[in-house]
Amino acid sequence: MELVRKLKQRQVEGHPIAVGLIGCGQMGSGLAHTINNIEGMAVRAIADIDPGRGITTFLEMGMPREAVCSAETLAQLQDAMAADRFVVTANAELLTQAEAIEANVEATGIPDIGALIAVRSIEDRKPIIMLNVETDITVGAYLSRLARKAGALYTVASGDEPGVCKMLFDQAVLMGFEVICLGKCKNNPIDFTMTPEKCQAEAHSKDMNPKILASFIDGTKTMVEMAAVSNATGLLPDCPGMHGARVEVEDLARTFIPNTDGGIFSHRGTVEYSTGSFAPGVFAVVYTDDARIRKDMKFITKAEGPYYLHYRPYHLCDLETPQSIAEAVLLGEVTVAAETMHSEVVAVAKRNLRSGMEIEGIGSADIYGRIYTYAEGRQQKAVPLGIAPGGMVTCDIARGQILSQANFVPDDSTFIYKLRRQQDEMLSQKGSGF
Questions:
Q1: How far apart are CA 318 and CA 26, in angstroms?
Q2: How far apart are CA 90 and CA 48, in angstroms?
C-alpha cells in the first residue's frame, strides 16, 4: 500500500492530509496527539461542544497560542485555515463544509450527532471515519449505501475492536480458512447495574467521562463493537448477549467452536467475547479440513487443527485510527463498512422504569445494550439502542426487560431516528439499494 511513502511525499510537498476532528474527549484528544506525530497528516480543526478542549489539545501539541483561533461561521473557519491557523469551533457541521479539510473523524460517541455529521460529510463527498461505533450499529448500513451512491467514503476506524477483528477476518479468508469465531477479550466481567455515579471516582482517575466508563463496565460497548463486527462479516452471536465465557488464550480454539466438536456454540460463524486474562486482545478461531494446509500449519505452528487460533494481543484504539484516515484519503479504501444488518444492539432496562419516564442514553442509570441477531430483534419489536435516548416509557418496564414497541416510544424528532426509519424501509425491500 505504501502509505508511509505517500504520506512522506505529502509532507515534502507541503500539503499534509488536513483532518477535521469532531469530539475532543479521551479518544479524540488522543487521536489528535497521535496524528501530530505522523508525517503527512495534521489535525487542522477541532469541533467540540466545549471549544476549550480543542484549544487545550492544540496547545498541548505545541501549537503557538496565536496560531489557534475560534470560528463560529464557515467563512471564519476557512479564512483561518487559509492563514495556516488551527481552528476550534462548537459547530461540528462547519467541518463537513470546509473545502480545505480532506477527511473528518467522528469521535463523540453520541449516535445522533454521529449520524448527522456522517450524512453531512457524505453530502460534501468528504471521507468520514467513525470512532463512533454507536452510530454505525444503528444506521451504518444506510450510511454505507448513501456514501457508495454519492461517490463518497464511509468507514469505521481501525484500532477499535471492529477494525482489528475485520483485519483478522480478511486475513483468514485470504488464507483459505473458514472463520468459526471472531472475538475480543473484555477486561472485566459485566456489571449490569453500573451507573456513572458508581464509577465516577474511577472515571476521573482515568480522565474519562463516567458515562463512557459505565458503558464499558455494563457491557454495552462490547455489544456495540461485536455487532459492528457481525454486520461487517455476516457472523452472528450464538445467543442474545453472547456467552462471555472466561477462556484463556490456550483454550480458545477448543472452546469457541461448535458443540459437535466439544465447544460451546450451536452454529458455525459467531461473534463472541471472553473475560480471560488476555485483554485487550482480539482473536479469530479458524478451520480447515484441507490435509495439505493442516500439514503446513503443523510444521509452522505445531498446532494439530483442524481449528486454529489467530490472535492479536492488543488493539490500540485511536492510536491506530490514522491508518484508516490514510487509506481513505490516499487509496479510497474502507476499514469496516456494512451494507446490511446481521445483528442489532437493543436497549435493556438497567433498573425498573416507570411509565412516563424519559430515558437517558448509553452509559446512564436507565439502560444498557444487548446484542441480538437482527432477525430476533425485529421479531421482538425491540428498540435499537441508538434511538432510545430521549424516548418515553409508556408501560412499566422491569429491570432486565427489553424496551420494545409495546412499552416505549422513541423520540421521533432526532436525526438518527429519521435515518433509522429510512434504513428499516430500505432493508425491508429485497435486494434494495438506492
A1: 9
A2: 5
Full set of structural domains in the chain with CATH: 3-158+318-331 (3.40.50.720), 161-314 (no CATH), 343-426 (3.90.1210.10)
Name the grid cell of 174. Answer: 485470504
Helices 51-60 and 26-36: crossing angle in degrees, nearest 10, is 30
Model pLDDT for residues 47-90, shown as the tens digit of each residue = 999 999 999 999 999 999 999 999 999 999 999 999 999 999 99
Which phi and psi (to 5°) does residue 384 adopt? -60, 140
> How much is the pLDDT for 187?
85
The answer to whether residue 16 scores a pLDDT higher than 80 is yes
- For the segment 88-131, what is each residue's pLDDT rounded down to a tens digit? 999 999 999 999 999 999 999 999 999 999 999 999 999 999 99
Give the containing element (helix H, strand E) for 154.
strand 154-156
Predicted TM-score (pTM) of this structure = 0.95
Amino acid at 427: L
Cell numbers of 156, please?
469505521
Q: How far is CA 259 from CA 268, 276, 294, 413, in A?
A: 10, 20, 21, 46
Contact 265, 242 (CB under 8 A): no
| Cα distance between residue 118 and residue 127, in whole Å | 9
Q: What crossing angle do the helices spanning 133-150 and 220-233 adopt, rounded to 10°?
A: 30
Tell me how far apart the alpha carbons of residues 320 and 172 are, in angstroms, rounded to a whole number: 20
Residues 6+ apart with CB under 8 A from 335: 129, 155, 156, 157, 158, 163, 166, 323, 324, 327, 328
First to last CA, the chain: 31
Q: How confident is the model at residue 276 (pLDDT cuts 50, 70, 90)?
A: confident
What is residue 401's DSSP assignment?
P
